[in-house]
């Protein structure tokens, strides 16, 4: 956590506009950033699943009905 505050203090006044903007954005939402850094929990699995569903939906658009689409989205544990 101390590294986070050092980063914000060091780069808030950077000459690189994008880096300064990023550091100031971190400062504005510091409570959420602290929670993300300190918490061992992650929503990576959910985001990955959403991405998979969206990709399948895009590739199947206009090619099938709801029955085939739902079959394509079913979880298959045997396949790797």
Compact overview of the structure:
This protein is mainly alpha-helical.
Strand content: under 5%
Structural category = mainly alpha
Number of strands: 0
Rg, Cα atoms, Å: 21 Å
Low-pLDDT stretches: none
Order of helices and strands: HHHHH
How many distinct folded domains?
2
Mean pLDDT: 83
Biggest sheet character: none
Account of the protein in words:
- This protein has 80 residues and is mainly alpha-helical.
- It folds into 2 domains: 2-38, no CATH class; 44-73.
- The chain is built from 5 helices and no strands.
- Helix 1 (2-11) packs across helix 2 (17-28).
- It is elongated and about 55 Å long.
Compile the SSE list and pairings.
Layout: H1 2-11, H2 17-28, H3 30-38, H4 44-60, H5 66-73
What distinguishing features does this structure have?
80 residues, 5 helices, 2 domains, mainly alpha
């Amino acid at each position: 956590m101390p590294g986070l505050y050092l980063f914000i203090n060091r780069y808030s006044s950077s000459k690189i506009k994008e880096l300064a903007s990023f550091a100031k954005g971190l400062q504005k939402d510091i409570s959420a950033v602290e929670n993300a850094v300190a918490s061992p929990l992650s929503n990576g699995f959910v985001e990955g699943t959403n991405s998979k569903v969206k990709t399948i939906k895009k590739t199947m658009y206009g090619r099938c009905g709801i029955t085939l689409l739902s079959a394509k989205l079913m979880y298959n544990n045997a396949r790797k």
